[in-house]
Amino acid sequence: MILLLDIGNTRIKWGSLIGGEFAVGGALLRAKGDVAELIEAVEAKQYRPTRVVVSNVAQASYRELLADEVGTHWGCEVVFPGVEVAAFGVINGYDEPQRLGVDRWLALIAARQLVDGALCVIDCGTALTVDLLTQEGEHLGGMITPGVGLMQAALLNNTEGLHVAGEWPAEEESLLMACNTADAISGGAYYALIALIERVANDLRAPLGDDVSLILTGGDAAIISAHLRCRVQLESDLVLRGVAMVAEASS
Question: The CATH number of the domain where 71 resides is what?
Answer without folding.
Answer: 3.30.420.260
